[in-house]
Give the backbone structure.
Amino acid sequence: MAENTEFQKLSIKELKAKYKTPFERIRHMSNGQIAIRVFAMFMFMATVSLGIYLVLFGMPIFGVPSHNRIVEAEISSPRLTENTVTVTDDEYIEYARNIVSYLNKSLFYEIEGDVGEPIVTIKYTDKKGNVTEVAANETVLFYEGETYPLAQKRIFVAVAEGVFFPDYVEWETIQEFIR
């Protein structure tokens, strides 16, 4: 125990001189000191990982109800057809909800020029009757009355049209659209 208090009083230079390797220094640390260092390293790595994720994939949108709270999803794509697809089956509601995972807001790009009109719009109705509307075109997300640049451009529109409007989609066009 006396060695632990001595360890706490030493400066970093003195520690490095007395204990040559990191393993020797750790062996003389108290459990609390080890726990603090491990926690600090974990927090550092979590922050770096989050930063890398946000740079690569953008910020997910929040506020869309979970698929088990949604009773109906209405999907429209005026570019393809004036018809809307309304789904009430749990499987297709889950598809409609999971497609939103492609709609991440870019934190580092700004919208330039005209934002255009939405190509795909999904309206979710939850069990309480609240309606949440999410729409997007190739580069812009329309959500809660605001517009945001998309981090992953074109993917949402291609997937939504392919899943819910397969009879109207020209697949060669979708393949070119994604590239």
User: Anything to note?
Assistant: The chain has a mean pLDDT of 83. The beta strands are 59-60, 70-76, 84-87, 104-105, 120-126, 131-136, 140-143, 146-149.
